[in-house]
Write the structure tokens for this entry.
Amino acid sequence: MSNKKFDAIILNPIDNVGTSIKFLKENSNIILKIENKLSKFTLKEPINLCHKFSLKLIKKGDKIVKYGEVIGVATADINKGNHVHIHNIKSLRG
Amino acid sequence: MKKYFYGYRRKNGTIGIRNKLLIVSITGLTGPTARKISNLIQGSLFVDNPYGGGIIGEDKIRQDNAIIGFAKNPNIGAVLIITADLPKGHYVKTALENSKKPVELLTLDECNHDAIKLLDLGLRVGAKLTKHISNYRREKVPLSELTIGLECGRSDPSSGLVANPLMGLVADRLIDLGGSAIIGETIEWLGAEHLLLKRAQSNKVKTKISNAVDIQRNLAKSKGIDLLGNNPGHQNIQAGLSTIEEKSIGNVAKSGSKKIENVIDWGDQTKKKGMYLMHAPAYAPESLSGFSSASCQMILFSTGVGNSFNNHISPTIKCSANPDACSQLNEQLDFKCSDVFVGDKLIEKSLEEFWDLIVKICSGSLTWGEILNDSSEVFSRIDRSL
């Protein structure tokens, strides 16, 4: 990984969620790392360490993609920069 | 990169990374006495089987196989079997003959049902076995002799992002050297089967993988269990894992990238070298005992927020990439890789450090779990007792 500091990572270019590597405050401007590139992003909600947030508007019924793999489906519309967790996504398998 | 370690060569050719007396009580009645004997003999490991003779059918086969598996583990130098009844003890002793290790059998019958007499006899016999195995010496052996179990527990997304991929790199390297690795926790293949199926070495293995996942998924369904809250469990959810698919994709990362040789059942031994899947429960104590019964000499165990449980027979190396866990759990985590998670270190560099630690522990350096004795063995149950 790069030595430059970042706040959250995107594991695969096709992902629609990012993962925080530290606690991130509401409305904070953060640095995202994807592969070896860094970019700016604004969060809408506070995100705990290791939790996920939406990289774009995700509509109810859309698939949630992390690691380049489907990890579930949205149960509500999720705005860009919002927390993505069990309150707005569910498993397709469990 | 180190390719050798110092281990104990057993008479049947297997290599132990530890040299322990196993005291195993195979009937419920003898458990408390056998525990006392083990408490009094330095370095001995105790395995209790409180279910004893009540177990029937497929459960009985599993239990007997596990007792024999634990005793056969190369980390065990000698075995003291303690039982109420002779026939079952005799069965286990006979099954251990081809391991060529010293095995003694004591029964309550021969002590006229006097547990204090059994304690006296057990102490003397156990002490002699310990004296005997203390003469064994380590020698230089290739890492191809090693089989590792790969586990994760109290996982969070840092496990799937860093700690498990790191374990996967270790597994790949070990298999390249001619060694073996096993992952279990079938329910945590659910949603990541496609990643395992494309690595299966045959269609037969593919079918076994799919069937194993179906069995566990149907088990949950038939009992009316919603996996959310069960797996991922409460702790996983709090730590940021939202669905079984997310957890599974992170979970299977610890299996690396090599061809999957076969799927074995809980506690069964592998027949060849390479990467294996164990169709087994996900709950850590039961999963880990599956590995030690399958002759894994060592277990690598990743955790997100922390997990203090270790296997008794196979030294268990705890690693985490969670920055909070790494700063707090100093006497639990043997290897910390949060520096990779936050971008301060390359995973390739961390792999070299992890590898060096693994080789050291193979050669006798202790894990925190061994020092603190946070370990035990459990038997997997699938049915009711009679």
Remarks:
- Residues 15 and 69 of chain A are 8 Å apart (CA to CA).
- Residues 8-90 of chain A form a domain with the Archaeosine Trna-guanine Transglycosylase; Chain: A, domain 4 fold (CATH 2.30.130.110).
